[in-house]
């Protein structure tokens, strides 16, 4: 079998690439090794309601994600305008406005009670520091430690980065993860620039986040149908074992050893995780394979819980969108989202069943042992922390545990240089492109943007 373009990987990157290629009139085949497409976007039924058990939102202020959803006919919704909290010092405290945990309003920071007097004084003294020379790169934690003190890193930056990357602040690249913070530090005071960037009382026309009614996990299925409607083909349960150069194109070996299939293609887009991409590039782009093999990944778990409406405290039922937990608190969970409050469609669907939904997340980079527990144990750990945090003592009427093994690539210090080496090596192979969460950002808009870049490279050649 010969195809114009083969896309390997059926997560959001691969689906977005296949969709764009099919709309451009290319004969495209998408191959996904698992039984279903979607990657970390997935809906599962909990207490009679389909809810997200993977990514539940995307940035709204970056357009690629919402534009793609609307292009395939999905309505975009925004979260409720309610506060989020941080669980530290034995209390749920208001989460101050921040740039990935770096406070933008010092009066609000003081009022929150997150920092003690000494740590707060350190932050207020920051404008006296000279600009920071970040050099080639620096970890987010080291940058914040130097300018604002380690308490800000431990209590504010860590929980925010833990939610996005499931990573460790003192290991994550500042240039890759928070380039705006780097630019600010190289100009001067983070505190002064933060106050100017987000003055007290300021309102913003565009919401920060967006989702889809019925769940972000609906997007993959709709994309599959759109790819097929445009003339493309999508196959699941089709693991690509080998990628080799053949003439001016490629040969892909697909399927189990007992029933292997050979497919040739003029061009290939690899939209697989870093480790799988490294394996496939071993023969055709060994320098890229070597670099990608260095990208580590974090495993995380999402525990979804449904409770009878009358069993939940007021805060869960309508007072907050959830809370974050700094790792220094030593808790099992790193965050809880009150889905019933955050997303109107979840609250309405749950109310029709007489339940409310919330979820917890567990797992950070280097802490994979926490996910070795049984599903039942992860549920009990979540319930124990929820009891201590919000006084929720009821038993759930239904639960779901979703594990994402190696689900989040880690952007270590020097990540941008690593990605540049990968792309340089891949660009030397005509007809080959890569995309996904390992390159330019782990959020949905960034991943869709990387897919568009890969498509442009393939079409341009």
UniProtKB/TrEMBL annotation:
Pfam families recorded for this chain? Amino_oxidase (PF01593)
Compartments reported by the entry: Cytoplasm
Q: What Enzyme Commission number does this protein have? A: 1.3.3.15
Q: In which pathway does it act?
A: Porphyrin-containing compound metabolism; protoheme biosynthesis
Q: Name one GO molecular function term.
A: oxygen-dependent protoporphyrinogen oxidase activity
Identify the residues that the record assigns to the Amine oxidase domain, covering every copy: 12-459
Q: Which residues form the signal peptide?
A: none
Obligatory cofactor(s): FAD
Determine the domain of life of the protein's source: Bacteria
Q: What does this protein do?
A: Involved in coproporphyrin-dependent heme b biosynthesis. Catalyzes the oxidation of coproporphyrinogen III to coproporphyrin III.
Q: PANTHER family annotated for this entry?
A: PROTOPORPHYRINOGEN OXIDASE
Q: What protein family does this chain belong to?
A: Belongs to the protoporphyrinogen/coproporphyrinogen oxidase family. Coproporphyrinogen III oxidase subfamily.
Q: What is this protein called?
A: Coproporphyrinogen III oxidase
Tell me what organism the protein belongs to.
Answer: Nocardioides cremeus
